[in-house]
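Standup, Tuesday
Yesterday: got the pipeline producing C-alpha cells again.
Today: sanity-check two examples.
Blockers: none.

Example 1:
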Amino acid sequence: MFLGSTTFGGFHITSCDAHGNRFMLIPWRSSFWGTCLSVIRQLGSYLKVASYFLFPAIQLAAGISHPSWVSLPFFICSCVGLVDWSLTSNFSGLFRGWRYLQLYAGFNAVVLYVYQLPIGFPMIVRDTARIVGLFNLSVESDWQEACSGLSLILLYFVLSSIKSDLEEMEHIMSMRDNDLTERLLPSRKSFFIRESRC
C-alpha cells in the first residue's frame, strides 16, 4: 500500500511538473493532494533512514530468534558486520555481504512459504526440513517462530528498499583513487571530454 501510494504520488508530481499543470486550476503544491503527497514523500525518506539503523537489529533477530541451520548465515553475517564496524568505525561494515543476504532471505522466505502450504510432503522431506530449521506457523506456534518469520520478511524488505543506496555506496568505496578531485572530474574516456576536444 505504501509503495503504491508513493509510486502514484511520484508519477502524479512528475506529470504535473512535466505538463505545466494544464489540467488543474489550483497549483498542486498548494492543494490538499500536494500536501498529502509531500507528507508521504517525507515519511518515505524517514522510513528509509530508519531502515539503515534498524538493519543490524533485524538481521540479528533473523539469526537468533529461532536458532537453526537455516538462520545460521544471518547470525554469522551479523557478527561479521558488527566486528567490522567495531574495528574500522565504518558504518558500511554492517552491510557487508548484503547482496548474498538479500538473495538468501528471499530464497528462505519462499521455501518457508512453500513449507506452509497444505501439501503432503514425504516423510524424508519433513524430517529434513525439521532438521534444518523449517517450521509450520499456526496458532500454537511459539513467539520465536513468529519472530523469525517476521524478521525474515522485514530483512528482505529493508534490503530491497535500500538496495540502490548500497550499490552507490559500494561504487564509491570501490574507487581506487582516494583523491576527491579525481572522483569529481569526469574520466578521460568520457563522451563529453572527447566531444569538447574535437
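Example 2:
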Amino acid sequence: MGRGKVVLKRIENSISRQVTFSKRRSGLIKKAFELSILCEAEVALLIFSSSGKFYQFASHDIDRTTAKYRREVGLPDSNNPHFRTMEFWRSEIEELKRSINTLEARLKHLSGEDILALGMKELKQLERQLKTGVERVRSRKRRMVSDHTTLLKGRHKQLQEENACLQKRLNELQDGNTSSRSVLGENACNIFQPRNFLPDEGGLLNEAENVSRFI
C-alpha cells in the first residue's frame, strides 16, 4: 500500500510543524551532500526557520560559492566596502521591520485584538502577562496615592503649626495694645487735671495794704 498524497499547506500544530521541519531539513541537507558527491557539484544551501534560526550546508567554501552566484546573477561584489555598508544597513532595516511587526502584533494581542489565531499556550501566556501588568499598575497606583496622602498630611501639619504661631503672635499684639491703652489713659488724666493759676487770697490782701500806705 503506497503512501497517501501529502497536501501542501501550513501545519497548524506547532509541535508537528517543528518535527516536520527538522525531518525535512535533515533530508534536504542529505540530498545536497549526495548531489555534491555523486555529481561533483558545487552546492550551497541556506535555511532559515520560522523563528529566524539559521542552517547552512556547503560542499565547497561558501564565500567562493556565494561570490560565484553574485557574478552569475549580476550582483555587486560583496568585498566592495560600499556594498558591505549597504548590505549592513539593509539587514538592519529588515531586522527593525521584523521587530516592529512583532511588537505591533504583541500590542494588538494585549489589547484583545487578533487573538483568534492564538493557541491555548499563547492565550495562557498572554493571560499571565496581562495579570502581571495589572498588578504592576495597581501597585504603582497604590504607591502614588500613599505618597500623595503623606504629602497632604505633612502640609496639613505645617499649616496647623503656622496657624498656631500666627494666633500666638496675634494674642501678644492684643496684650501689648491693652497695656499701651492703660498707660496712655493715666498720662491723659495727669495732663488734663485742673490747676490753680491765680495767686492765693492772702497774698492779694497784703499787696493791697502796701499800696494803701503809699496813698
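Quick observation on example 2: DSSP finds five helices and two strands in the chain. The longest strand covers residues 44-48.
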